[in-house]
Amino acid sequence: MWPGRGDAATIRPIAAGSGLTEVENIARDGLMPTYLEDLTLRLSAAIAELPEDLRARQAKHLLAAQRDDGGFAGREGPSDLYYTGFALRSLAMLGELYGPPAERAAAFLRSRLSGQESIVDFLSLIYGASLLDSAAGIDVYSGADPNWREAVAGALEKLRRSDGGYAKGPEGIASSTYHTFLVLLCHQLIGYKPLEANSIVAFVRSQQCEEGGFREIRASKRAGTNPTAAAIGALKILDALDETTRRDTIEFLAEMQTDEGGLRANTRIPIADLLSTFTGLLTLEDLGGAAEIDLAAARRFASSLELERGGFRGAEWDPAHDVEYTFYGLGTLGLLTKYG
């Protein structure tokens, strides 16, 4: 969910004839929404309360950003799964993921089914495919190896480390809070029940710092807004969020709000950004602590980053925009609609 590709394992799970061995423990019954599905439903309902002209402006901007190959790109370079994932999520939340744009996006995702992808990109692929199925009735996986889910689960387990979490890549020694969260999201989307969930919980809890937030890796000296959001997301998925953690995390995130109104990434960075504002606000709301920050100031901050022609900048100093920050902008403003 939160950005940061970095060094990551590559997964090649879906092409027919992959030859990977089957992994046991596939357990999803399709009845309970996953973390990402629940989040998309929440944000869709919230964004529907935003002004019609804002929603129309952002939808037009996103649709115009689609490339000829059906994908979406960042600020430079060709289409890729990461940015395509953010664009598809935004279009789905705006009720615009259907028809020819959806068909072109499905063609782009199918073109990447046999490639080797990082965990971040792979999550974008499978969740984008899920959105296209639910919003437009398009099956991206038609023709894929029927055992691809088991193959993916096996590839993900190769990242498991003795500390209980998951590393960024096969060469990683220690686990990453963010990538552990990503693996859990992937587990949900493929219907996989994680093995030894208690050890994952223990790893996540070990990442909490004295100030109440969570660090990204064991060697980090301080907690950050985005690792904290990932940690709380992981604990929610594993049904392991306790009251002490809830209170301490609320206190930490409340301290991340700056005079600009947004939230900063960590205590060493004095400037707020839209990513940290979205993840911090979402986490505060999940913990019942949104009222601990100045919500009106957060709204002003997010609104100030919207461009007249559509799109959102990442921060006050940011001269450009992309579909990733458009998602964060829409999500932030949507979450704030319930607070007047």
Shape: globular
**In the CATH hierarchy, what is the class?**
Mainly Alpha
- Record field, number of beta strands: 4
Described by strand count, sense and barrel closure, the largest sheet is:
2 strands, antiparallel
Which spans of ≥5 residues are poorly predicted at pLDDT below 50?
A: 15-30
Q: Helical proportion?
A: 40-55%
What spatial order of strands do you see in the largest sheet? 1-2
Instruction: Specify Rg, calculated over alpha carbons.
Output: 19 Å
Strand percentage lies at under 5%
Run of helices and strands:
EHHHHEHHHHHHEEHHH
General description of the model:
The structure is a single chain. By secondary structure, the protein is mostly helical. Helices cover 49% and strands 2% of the residues. Strands 1-2 form a two-stranded antiparallel ribbon. Helix 1 crosses helix 13, helix 5 runs parallel beside helix 7 and helix 11 (274-286) packs parallel to helix 13. Residues 15-30 have low confidence and may be disordered.
